[in-house]
Write a structure and sequence with these properties.
The protein contains 15 helices and eleven strands. By secondary structure, the protein is of the alpha+beta class. The protein folds into two domains: 13-139 and 379-454 and 465-499, no CATH class; 149-375, no CATH class.
Length: 506
C-alpha cells in the first residue's frame, strides 16, 4: 500500500520538559522565595510549591506568560505551565534540587527553526538558569507531541508505524544509557529482558496488543522474509485511526500513538529523548522528532519502497537515520516556506552512543514504578494542559458575554510584551487584565510579530476543518478528567502518583 499523507503545511507541536531546579543563593532569589513562603515551612511539598511559583514568576519577568494553577489555564497558544512532577524524586545526593515539569503551549512548525517556539525555549532556559541551578538525571526526559495541521489519516499512521519499526534499532543506538531500554519509553517492537531475577521483577508486563506486535516483529526477524512482511501487517491491521489500539494500547513506549484517538489534541508523542538542561538541547530533540515524522509521512520520497525488499534481518543504521531526519527537515522547510529548518539541528550530530543500557536496578529507587504509573494516566501533561485551557476558556467566554481569552494564532510571530508581574509569587501570573471583558493579559508589543490566522486543528482523522479548536470545549470533562494543580495551592506530594492519576481518578 502506497504511503500517502494529507500534510500540507507542517505540524503543530508541544513539549514536556522534566528537570530539577535548585535556587541560587542570591538575595533576589531568596527574597522571591520568601514572598512565596519558602521559609515558613519545612514541608517538602510546600517548599516545592514555593519553588514552582518562584520559577513561574521569573519566566513571566522574562516576557512570557506562565501559570501555575490549572484555574489560570485559558490560552492554549500562549501559556506555559510550571508544575510539580510526582515521578521526579528529590535528588538524594544533591540536597535542594526539586523536580518540576515545564509544559509548553501549542506551537507551530510553520514559524520555522528561528520562530516563536525557538525564542520561547531560549527565554525559558535563560530565565531559569539565571536564578536556579538546573540538573537532570536518568529519571528526567523530554516528550514532543506532534500533529499534522490537517490531522492524522490511517495512511499517516501506517507510515509512521513502518518508519518507527525500521529505525527502532538506530533510535535506540543514539540514546544515552538511561534511554536505551527505559521501561516508560520502551521500544514497541522489542521486549525488555533481563537475566537478573531482581531486575526481571521490574520489567512491566506487556499487554495483549504489545505481546502481539513484539511477537510479529520477532517472527519476522527470525525468518528469511523482508520488511514488506511487516509493512503488510500494518496495512492490513490499520484501516482507520481507531485501529491503533490493535497494535498499541499503552502510552509508555518510544512513539506513543494513543493520543491520536483521545478526545483532546490528537497528537503522536515521541517519549524517547533524555532530560535536557539547555534550550539548544531541547530544540535539537524538537528537530529530530519533527524531522522523523515529516520524513515518515512523505508520499514522494520512496523510503517505504526502498525498504520493502530489504531482508528483515537488516536494521536501518544510524547513518540511515541521519539521512532520514535530514530529508524530513528538508521537506518541512519546503512545506512551511522556512528554509532554515536544518539550522535547528544537524542530523549528523545524532551519533551512536556506545554505552550499554542502564541496568534497571541502577535507576533511582522507586522511579520506575512512579514513571510507569504516570504513563498510565489517560492524558499526558501536554494533553491535559490543552484540554484544561479549552475548558476554562469556554467557561470564561460564557461568564464574560462570549469574549474569548484565547490567542487565535499558534503562529505567533512577535514576542509578547512582558506581562505585568504584579504578583511576584506567581499565583496570578496570567490573570485577565479586564475581568469584565474576559480578555487575557496577552502581549501586543511591537517587538512580537503579529499573530497570524490560526490553522484549523479540528480533526484526528484528516477530515475537513470545522474551525474548532484543537481540543473541543469540555474535553477534559468528557475524558473524566478533573483538573489538578501543579502549584503550591495543591502541593503535589512526592508520592502523589500513588494516590491519584492526572485524570483525577482515585
Amino acid at each position: 500500500m502506497a504511503t500517502s499523507s494529507n500534510l500540507t503545511k507542517g505540524f503543530t507541536f508541544g513539549v514536556e520538559i522534566e528537570i530539577y531546579l535548585q535556587p541560587k543563593k542570591t538575595k533576589r532569589v531568596s527574597d522571591r522565595l520568601a514572598e512565596n513562603k519558602w521559609n515558613t515551612t519545612s514541608d517538602l511539598n510546600k517548599k516545592r510549591g514555593a519553588l514552582i511559583k518562584t520559577a513561574a514568576s521569573f519566566i513571566v519577568e522574562a516576557g512570557l506568560t506562565a501559570v501555575v494553577e490549572v484555574e489560570e489555564l485559558v490560552d492554549q497558544y500562549r501559556q506555559w505551565q510550571v508544575k510539580g512532577d510526582g515521578s521526579l524524586y528529590e535528588l538524594k545526593d544533591k540536597a535542594g534540587f526539586m523536580g518540576v515539569e515545564i509544559v509548553s503551549p501549542i506551537m507551530n512548525a510553520a514559524d520555522g527553526a528561528k520562530g516563536i517556539w525557538s525564542d520561547d525555549l531560549d527565554v525559558i532556559f535563560s530565565a531559569l538558569a539565571r536564578v536556579f541551578d538546573i540538573e537532570v538525571n536518568s529519571a528526567c526526559s523530554m516528550h514532543v507531541h506532534m500533529k499534522p495541521e490537517a490531522g492524522w489519516t490511517a495512511a499517516d499512521v501506517r507510515s509512521l508505524f513502518k518508519a518507527t519499526a525500521v529505525f527502532d534499532d538506530a533510535i535506540t543506538k543514539i540514546m544515552p544509557a538511561s534511554r536505551k531500554q527505559t521501561p516508560w519509553a520502551k521500544s514497541s517492537f522489542r521486549a525488555i529482558t533481563s537475566s537478573d531475577p531482581e531486575e526481571a521483577k521490574m520489567v512491566p508486563e506487556l499487554s495483549a496488543a504489545e505481546r502481539g506486535l513484539v511477537k510479529t516483529f520477532a517472527d519476522m526477524k527470525a525468518s528469511n522474509t523482508t520488511w514488506q512482511h511487516l509493512f503488510n501487517h500494518f496495512d492490513t491491521t490499520i484501516q482507520k485511526t481507531k485501529d491503533i489500539d490493535k497494535l498499541a494500547d499503552k502510552r509508555g513506549v518510544s512513539m506513543n500513538f494513543i493520543p491520536i484517538n483521545k478526545d483532546v489534541c490528537h497528537t503522536v508523542e515521541f517519549r524517547r529523548p533524555p532530560g535536557v538542561k539547555t534550550a539548544e538541547a531541547a530544540k535539537r530533540w524538537v528537530g529530530f522528532a519533527l524531522g522523523f515524522v515529516s520524513a515518515a509521512l512523505d508520499p514522494n520520497s520512496g523510503w517505504e519502497q526502498l525498504w520493502s525488499p530489504v531482508p528483515a534481518k537488516k536494521d536501518a543504521t544510524v547513518d540511515n537515520l541521519q539521512s532520514f531526519i535530514g530529508n524530513g527537515l528538508e521537506r518541512l522547510a519546503n512545506l512551511t516556506g522556512r528554509r532554515n529548518w536544518k539550522s535547528v539541528v544537524d542530523p549528523k550530530s545524532f551519533k551512536t552512543d556506545p554505552s550499554n543500557p542502564l541496568a534497571l536496578k541502577k535507576y533511582e529507587p522507586g522511579v520506575i514504578q512512579a514513571k510507569l504509573l504516570k504513563a498510565m494516566k489517560q492524558l499526558g501533561s501536554f494533553e491535559e494542559k490543552v484540554a484544561t485551557s479549552v475548558t476554562n476558556s469556554s467557561r470564561s467566554n460564557s461568564s464574560a458575554g462570549g469574549h474569548g481569552s484565547r490567542d487565535n494564532s499558534p503562529s505567533r510571530t512577535t514576542p509578547p510584551k512582558k506581562p505585568s508581574s504584579n504578583s511576584a509569587t506567581g499565583t496570578n501570573i496570567a490573570r485577565s487584565n479586564s475581568s469584565d471583558s474576559g480578555h487575557s493579559s496577552r502581549d501586543n508589543s511591537p517587538n512580537r510579530r503579529a499573530p497570524q490566522k490560526k490553522p484549523s486543528l479540528s480533526s484526528a482523522t484528516g477530515t475537513a476543518s470545522t474551525g474548532k479548536p484543537t481540543c473541543a470545549p469540555g474535553a477534559a470533562k468528557a475524558t473524566g478528567s478533573k483538573p489538578t494543580s501543579g502549584g503550591a495551592a495543591t502541593a503535589i506530594p512526592v508520592d502523589s502518583h500513588k494516590k491519584k492519576t492526572g485524570t483525577g481518578k482515585k
